[in-house]
Amino acid sequence: MKLSRLAAVAAAAMIAASPALADLNVPALNYRTGPYAPSGIPYADGFSDYMTLLNERDGGVGGERINVMECETAYNTQKGVECYEALKGENPLVFIPQSTGITYQLIPKASADGIPVHSMAYGRTSAVNGKVFEWVFIMPGTYWDAASMMVKYAMEQEGGSLEGKKIALVYHNSAYGKEPIRTLEELSKKHGYTLTQLAVDHPGQEQKSQWLQIRRERPDYVFMWGWGVMNSVAIQEAANIRFPMDKFIGVWWSGSEADVLPAGAGADGYKSITWHKPGADFPAYEQIKTLVHDKGKAAGDGTTIGEVGYNRGVYAAVIVTEAIKAAQEATGKSNITAADMRDAYETLTITAERWAEIGLPEFAQPLQASCADHGAPHMGAIQQWNASEKTWTLVSDFMTPDEEVVGPLIEEDSMAYAAENNITPRTCE
Amino acid sequence: MSAEFLYTIEVILNGLLTGVMYSLVALGFVLIFKASGIFNYSQGVMALFAALTLVGFQDGQVPFAELINAVLGTEIHGFGWEMPTILAILCALAVMLLFAILVERIILKHLVNQEPIILFMATIGLAYFLEGFGDLMWGSDIKALDLGLPQGGSFWIEDMTVSWAAEDSGFYGMYIDKLDLIAAGVAVALVVALTAFSQYTRIGRALRAVADDHQAALSVGISLRFIWVVTWAIAGFVALVAGSMWGAKSGVQFSLSLIALKALPVLMLGGFTSIPGAIVGGLIIGVGEKLFEFAIGPMVGGATENWFAYVLALIFLVFRPQGLFGDKIIERV
């Protein structure tokens, strides 16, 4: 008798713990532990807090509550794939892998399973070509966009020409770190600068050789494609050799508080590219504070709000929820499927007015995705770190990449993938 | 002198100083292996935990704050004060001493007379436990560690050496990081202190006796359990020094535990039982990997340091399997 009661209680608990069928299930492959936790925590907090805000304030999206299904990956590709396998049967609307390694593994799997993958400004660059990668979305841009925009910014700083200049690329010795090399090489032919490549092995705790070489060669600019502790060590080493920080520019994954704070005052003036505004000065954030944090429903300890990673989590959550809303409007039903979500991603439009309407005015650039372009809006701006105030500030306007160079590279790479995998590209007319 | 020659000297000096940093980590391994025959897999994580504890005390962080907040619904983050560095170091040392006592009581006591592989496996478990425990206790966000030590290239050395090459040679003076110099001084002081401790103190002599033959040591009344606590406490102290020096360079975060990977080739080369071996091994690895990266690295795409350190250690192993200073293994039939 006791056993059967216990079984009934356990069954009831399992039913209560599992997501309701009508919920909008959104997996969150987070990494709150492991070597990259300092970057993963703010993102996870921002993503979940925005979803909680919508649940608390609006009852979800279109009358359906959002169910964020957190799965801890520790930024480990194997664990990420396990998370995918565990959650793919729970009617997930979209997977956001939060890692280039996991993205590469999920592209073929999710495409076969009919679940969209949103690798937000990371992952396989050529997946931006929707003609080949129907289920993969990479908005707001690609690594090649970032490389091109960083060169564009350096050129502006140099009065419009990089002829005869030297750029050093300090990069994580991995597929991710090597992503911009081809674009930077192509751009060097076009603009006449010399590119020096300096690889740093994982985890990047020791970079003395690379920075002694930079000190010897005195490049005009140093670009960084780093991750984790590699970023903070590089910034510290740059400060140690007194490299001018305003000539040191990191990609968007090398420009968060976790990267600059360890270097203290030495990091002052360091720059990185970004696709959104820094800080917490937005009406939606006030609502997150009052409706989520003050009610004890924050995903973390509430201290990460406004950090770069947190804002990226919010950005990802906005893209997901706007796509859900678009899918609901297009299909006329509130309980949408992953296929509906894919269609909505492909036609996703977020205007400046819409950003303001959701309480994030001028937070990010308007975007208009399409069948062929899964990476809109392809825009970035440069932010600079103020070490005394511990704040990032935008120091440039939003820029667009050099499509003349980036476009053909994407076409070539994506078509090679299509040929390897027997994919017939769509026409997208 | 030519700029190229001077830059080679610069690379060698920086290699030596980096090697000292590797030696700081390797010393902890040597101490425990020498006294108990245990290869302590958790030494890197101990360095991380010690540094986390130091910076936690310094910043006045409440231990287990997130856990307390989650369970009790409170909003506690810090005590609201900052602890002077010296006091924080003493508190961190006390925690590492407590850690040594707990390791002996909870793990080692139950594994007396077990095979070395069992003890090794136990330290793997300890490493994973300590990783999670450190996160839970102090949080997994990155922490800046300010010990008040100078950092960055020395102007004085740069100015003094810049005239050694012709003005238009492209030589900008010798670069030596002040923090590396301090770390070298700390390492020398540490080795002198450890040597003096083992040579001239009663406990030190007991440590050496246990290292030589623990059964003979037991027969003359030396407490093996006490010696293990002392050994792990000293290894904890060394971990605190290594964690502090590396943490001051890169911030205190999870990757700090991976510096153990840099200590392995040093141990292979210097021997697992020799304190001078750890120092000399560190210097050879430091100089070797930096020179190789400087001379050959650009031709093979760079990032050679991680693998070259192991290749160098393996080359030495071919000629001296016990390492440069390791005890020669003699099996009598």
Please explain how this structure is put together.
Chain B: It is found in: Cell membrane. Chain B: This is Amino acid/amide ABC transporter membrane protein 1, HAAT family. Chain B: The chain crosses the membrane at residues 12-33, 45-65, 85-108, 117-138, 181-201, 222-246, 266-287, 299-319. Chain B: One of its GO terms (biological process) is amino acid transport. The complex is a heterodimer of chains A (429) and B (333). The termini of chain A are far apart. In chain A, the strands form four sheets. Chain A has a seven-stranded mixed beta sheet, with helices on both faces. The relative contact order of chain A is 0.15. Chain A folds into two domains: 20-141 and 279-377 and 410-420, Response regulator (Rossmann fold, 3-Layer(aba) Sandwich); 143-274, 3-Layer(aba) Sandwich (Rossmann fold), CATH 3.40.50.2300. In chain A, helix 2 (37-58) packs across helix 11 (283-293), helix 3 packs parallel to helix 4 and helix 12 packs across helix 13 (338-346). Chain A is built from 15 helices and 13 strands. Chain A has 429 residues and is α/β, with parallel strands linked by helices. Residues 13-21 of chain A have low confidence and may be disordered. In chain A, strand 8 (248-250), helix 10 (257-260) and strand 9 form a beta-alpha-beta unit. Chain B has one domain (3-257). Chain B has 13 helices and no strands. Chain B has helices at residues 3-36, 43-58, 65-72, 85-106, 116-138, 155-161, 178-200, 202-212, 214-219, 224-250, 260-270, 275-295, 305-319. Chain B is globular and about 65 Å long. Chain B starts with a helix and ends in a 14-residue tail after the last helix. Chains A and B meet through helix 2, strand 6, helix 8 and helix 9 of A and helix 1, helix 3, helix 10 and helix 12 of B.
